[in-house]
Amino acid sequence: MYAQMVRSTGTGLKSADEMSAKERAFQARIDAGEKIEPKDWMPEGYRKTLIRQIGQHAHSEIVGQLPEGNWITRAPTLERKAILLAKVQDEAGHGLYLYCAAETLGVSRDEMTEMLLDGRMKYSSIFNYPTLTWADMGAVGWLVDGAAIMNQVPLQRTSFGPYSRAMIRVCKEESFHQRQGFDIMMKMAQGNAQQKAMAQDALNRFWYPALMMFGPSDKDSVHSAQSMAWKIKMNTNDELRQKFVDQTVPQAEYLGLTVPDENLTWNEEKGGYDFSEPDWEEFFEVIKGNGPCNTDRLAARNKAWDDGAWVREGMMAHAEKKRARKMAAE
Amino acid sequence: MKTEWPLWEIFIRGQHGLSHRHVGSLHAPDAEMAIKNARDVYTRRNEGVSIWVVEAAQITASSPSDKGPMYEPSESKVYRHPSFYDIPEDVGAM
Fold first, then answer.
1. How many CB pairs lie under 8 A apart between chains A and B?
2. B residues 19..58 contacting A (CB < 8 A)
3. A42 exposed, middle or buried (CB, 10 Å; 0-12, 13-18, 19+)?
């Protein structure tokens, strides 16, 4: 979701016979619900897959600040502005918790940043869509954070200790994000005709990109089996997507808005909604870098990194100088 | 010039007279900045009244493979727990 299509490294799912004794013992620990900690032995594939997944998740939090940051200076009231600032600051915090978790696996923060900046690592496809009106702040909080929560709640039980602990912190803070989004949507949906139209337009534009956040359909999701055995992926993409639709449709009805899907119908037999798949071709294009905002997002991150270089270097030089002076005085 | 800031481990004392507890880590050029950053990263919702920062490189940790020999000696000493002793009910709370 915030991590889509994470390639798992290795030869695919191994049977117990194909595993080495160490791998068998490792899998047994995971099956018993034990947490794996950074200094424990782990298969190289587990380590690499987790770096990709946690790194992508962290990058998503950081890049995810951009579409919302776009509206901070134009929030309609001072209260809305303060709330949006707090939310965007939380996203920075969530990125930092996750980078720290990834670093325990032996990759450095700067390496991960550089891999984001030169396109070797990805972030969620959702942040390549523009936020055109204030109602989009509502739709992003309600739908995008709603979809994120759906994925992050089960990840609190993931097998890697630092990742699990980061997810617990993130989830504690995340429900504020969704509720503030829904609060904006309520206000707009109960407003005048123009405001209601803006809310509907935001839902129209964000519905399918939100469904894409869960990643490709299970039948096309080639990396799931190994990740699920390792408990770094807790549910399949389609399971989570279904859960999200079932939860969100009644909320849209409450708002008096229409989900932009003619095929949306309640299916009594499965106890959930039938709904249209998003346009997967569009999804793969966005992932490849051809979404509406890919270029802008990466340019903004690159500019921040380059413009901040003198600050990073200056502060390090200052810290060195202070240390040297203190040593000399002792 | 390679200027990656060192990693600091962050410990925070919650509101209720508890010990400082490890909450995570962050990068900062020096201890003073580490405390400032820890304030922003780990106490946005009033989670603490005191912060300790320790450079991660300064921490020495026990090795997971020592788990057996390190902790086994205490496993067999059940008499260190109060529940080892049967005190008759007549004696009352003890």
1. 49
2. 24-27, 29-30, 33, 40-41, 44-45
3. buried
**Mean per-residue pLDDT for B22-51?**
94
State yes or no: pLDDT of B7 exceeds 60: yes
Best A315, A325, A326, A327 member to test B by mutation, with max B CBs in 10 Å, is A315
Partners of residue B7 on adjacent β-strands:
B27
Token reading at A318: 């200052």
Distance CA A286, CA A213 (A): 11
CA atoms in the 13 A half-sphere facing the CB of A321: 6
B-chain residues near A39 (CB < 8 A): 61, 63-64
What pairs with residue A267 in β-bridges? A272
Using one digit for the tens of pLDDT, what is the confidence trace for A251-310?
999 999 999 999 999 999 999 999 999 999 999 999 999 999 999 999 999 999 999 999
Tell me, yes or no, if A97 comes closer than 8 A to chain B by beta carbon.
yes
Q: Which of B26, B29, B61 sits opposite A318 (nearest CB)?
A: B29
pLDDT of residue A18: 86
**pLDDT (average), residues A181-206:** 98
Instruction: Report chain A's terminal Cα–Cα distance, integer Å.
Output: 53
* B46 phi/psi in degrees, rounded to 5: 65, 35
**Phi, then psi, of B44 in degrees rounded to 5:** -70, -20
Q: What is the rounded distance in angstroms from the CA atom of residue A231 to the CA atom of residue A209?
A: 26
Q: What is the DSSP letter of A39?
A: T
**ipTM score of complex:** 0.86
Mutate which of B26, B32, B36, B70 to disrupt the A interface (most A C-beta within 10 Å)? Answer: B26
Asked if A39 and B61 come within 8 Å (Cβ–Cβ), the reply is yes
Inter-residue contact A66 to A124 (CB < 8 Å):
no
The reported pTM is 0.92
B70 touches chain A (CB under 8 A): no
Banded model confidence at residue A11, pLDDT cuts 50, 70, 90 = low
CA–CA gap between residue A1 and residue A24 (Å, rounded): 29
C-alpha torsion sign, points A116, A121, A122, A123: negative
Residue A229, classified by CB atoms within 10 Å of its CB into exposed (0-12), middle (13-18) or buried (19+), is middle
* Contact between residue B83 and residue B90 where contact means Cβ atoms under 8 Å apart: no
Q: Give the whole-number percent of chain B exceeding pLDDT 90.
A: 68
